[in-house]
Write the structure tokens for this entry.
Amino acid sequence: MSGIKVILDKCVGCGLCLKVCPVDAIKLVDKKAVIDLDKCTLCGACPDSCKFEAIIIEREKVIVKDDLSQYKGVWVFAEQRDGVIASVVFELLNKARQLAQGLGTYVGAVLLGDKVSEKAQELIYRGADKVFLIDSPGLSHYTSENYTKAISGLVGKYKPEIILAGATTTGRSLVSRIAVGIYAGLTADCTGLDIDPERKILIQTRPAFGGNIMAQIISPNFRPQMATVRHKVMPESENNPQAKGEIIKETFDEATRDNRIKFLDFIKETITTVNLAEADIIVSGGRGLQEQKNFSLIEELAETLGAAVGSSRACVDAGWIPYSHQVGQTGRTVCPKIYIACGISGQIQHLVGMQSSKLIIAINKDPDAPIFKVANYCIVGDLFKVVPLLIKKFREIHAK
Amino acid sequence: MKIVVCIKQVPDTTDVKINPETNTLIREGVVSIINPFDMYAIEEAVRLKERFGGEAIVVTMGPPQAIDVLREAISLGIDKAIHLSDRAFAGSDTWATSRILAKAIEKIGGCDMIICGKQASDGDTAQVGPGIAAHLDLPQATYVRRIDSIHLDTTPRIMVVERLLEEGYELLEVELPALITVVKEINEPRLPSLRGKMAARKAEIPSWSNKDLNIDENQIGLKGSPTQVIKIFTPPPKPGGQILQGEPEEITSKLVEEIKDLL
């Protein structure tokens, strides 16, 4: 059986591993680390913490049933709604190109939907060498069951080495289901993807614990290697109308359609036209706004910048703004290019949802507010004075 | 209705502090709680049971100390709890974890609905819920923010749910049995009642090992997990931000000047 052990000769009893153990399974006995195997979940935190390489996790050898070398190609799930391809897809195509070069293989895009054929060409312009297209009335709206069936079929037939999907509500739900059926490894919410140049496998980097810890994950013995990837972490691929590619049409067998779940309707519900996940800029408001009507200040700044509106939990709980705008642990995790926090103190639950943003601007009266610990620009001041001035000045820039 | 709720014990992040020198989590003395999203799953199951009758059962996989969250779930109105614990389960990734939970649900038998929180606060993957649905070949609706209606007298039995998306929500009609994962908006969890607390103390919670579930050892634990963690590290600390303090007119001009090229 697989297991964990401490090499007593190497352990110096420094206690570093005790601090990182999330389940409190390690104790020092006679200046040596002792692991309580009943508590240990083999999470892998302690071997990495040990400066003396005194803790090792032993893995039983996995018998690889399949010939892994037959898996070729880096695929991207081309998520679309009503024929509009999600912008994260172009980010993934860019990354897929890089990975495909590292592996000496092609970039594939998987496009499912009803009357979406013409979008296949757009994917080629954006960097796909091959587009696997299934155009069928049965796939007009996303349902996990039918999309899983269709994509698993393609995987079985064409055997891709890697599959990437956006870490969206659709992407995350879909590929989790696919991975189980085809017995493949799946890593959620990656912010980094690289090819190990020697082993030619995918190294997936992802934040855990809201970005306080990063983990690197591999799936060396299973194919395809699957990952969902966060928005806005990678630049989009360029649109090249000269690009050439192949469109491979496959069919969806309507007779096998899973009717246990039916799409009835989609109701749009955001107070601005920009959605949080895809936004380049997010303006968020917190308790510092004092009352609901002041949220209009946030909306106005957002509108000026073409930004989405976010909120701390406090404002959602107070009923000032719908839950769909909440950023943080019990809301959404976002990583826009610019995040502007107005009157948000920065509780850890909020920080874990936004601290991966590329540039953070915080406006708060309290110079000791925790939000300033993660901010690039810390504006210590009254938001009721600062925000209107920002609106005015940004408008002036736009006017030019 | 027979409802199973899958929950996870996680470290309480309200308790988590960051060591400012090393920028690492200080986990010493951090207490464990029910994953925040699972609280909504528990509440929804209890409400459904209260409305339609039947039974709400909670399941967790984890080391012996995970039994605490099962007792807490009972105090919140859950009828029964089952603890899945075996050293052979340790090291399971989301594939293997969903396999184990699915097998337990199969063993419980006759479930009409399975409810999970949308994701766990420590791993943040949101993969185990759909994973269970896939293993059991059940329809799934993730990120559910409301169950609009349930029709138990129709054939097939169906429910209509609202599924939260990036830009709004979609309405789905789902055949039962089904699995849903829920978001915070779905309800407001109650506090434990005195009667619930008594029940929690007295409850006998069976522990199932792999002897009970009888899953191929190649499909659980480290060995059955396609993914492997090769490294865990702390991201480099952010350099301290620029502090802008003084006259609002002045500092806003400075900020706008600095970032205008990024817009």
